[in-house]
From TrEMBL:
Family annotation (Gene3D superfamilies): Aldolase class I (3.20.20.70)
Species whose genome carries this gene: Geobacter metallireducens (strain ATCC 53774 / DSM 7210 / GS-15)
Assigned keywords, A-Z: 4Fe-4S, Elongation factor, Iron, Iron-sulfur, Isomerase, Metal-binding, Protein biosynthesis, Pyridoxal phosphate, S-adenosyl-L-methionine
GO MF, one annotated term: translation elongation factor activity
Sites where the protein binds [4Fe-4S] cluster: C102, C106, C109
The protein, known as: Translation elongation factor P-lysyl-lysine 2,3-aminomutase
Domain Radical SAM core: start-end pairs: 88-300
Lineage: Bacteria, Pseudomonadati, Thermodesulfobacteriota, Desulfuromonadia, Geobacterales
NCBIfam families in UniProt: KamA family radical SAM protein
Amino acid sequence: METWRKAIADSITTPEELAELLDIDPEPLAPLVRRYPLRITRRYLGLIGKPGDAIWRQCVPDPCELDDDQLSDPLDEERLSPVPGVIHRYPDRVVWLVSNECAVYCRFCMRKRRVGCPLAGSNGRSGDDAVRYIAATPAIRDVILSGGDPLLLDDERLEAILARLRAIPHVEMIRIGTRTPVTLPERITARLCRMLKRYHPLYVNTHFNHPREITPEATKACARLADTGIPLGNQTVLLAGVNDEPAIMTLLMQRLLAIRVRPYYIHQMDLVRGTGHFRTKVTTGLDIIGALRGHTSGMATPYFVIDAAGGKGKIPLLPDAVERRGDTWLLRNYRGEIVEYQDR
């Protein structure tokens, strides 16, 4: 059995196992885990420094998850699914949910309603339906593989998906969204990278939320992907008690660049049932972007976005006030100064 498969098999999946390792009461966890499955790799669990810290909050079930009455699918992904497993929100790109598993079931997951459950569109006949839909829709030039985590598929199954997409002339690029460099870095094997290299242009967006997640093992995993010629981006979720301070987010973005991962998005928490205790005010995100802009490299400054409810798409937010007077724009810079720009 491959090393990464052994790590998955050895993961913590029951309240009793977790309670024994963390010296907590398992009883309050039982109803949580029945509703929202539990999985934590031992490597990721080992990053916890103390109860309630940034790593703990991301992976240890919290009773607050059952107290939130938001919608389970506020982004209307089910409505925007023309065939099982495919989400078609924007004209030129689709998301294909090819996996129902993750190495760690993050407690803030936007797809809490589905994670760890049987997932349509990931294989067999429903997978054929997804490929047929993409092939029959010439406007689609960009396919994002998501889930779950696509890299929880074995190499052969993942390559079969990539090969079928590459055979479609109008699919110009493929993106893979994965958190395995953070939670299961041993998954990024030399064999996997050799296979991925055959399917360029290929992009990988990973998901670091805190500087402590950038371990030597995660750094090595990202280096392997980058050395394969795969551009790496990062999508961070703004999480209360995890990374909602400008100093923490600045350090995270700077360290990402140091391991050749370009910060791409900071997401305002989606209004997903079971995640309300992670939500911050929008002004928190604006303050963080304000602290980044001008005070660190522009490459370290991602977009701060809200994914609008009802499938209306991502909306970038900026902290600067902008006003137009004829051909003159009044712009506010990172110091809060008003700067005139003549639009000629």
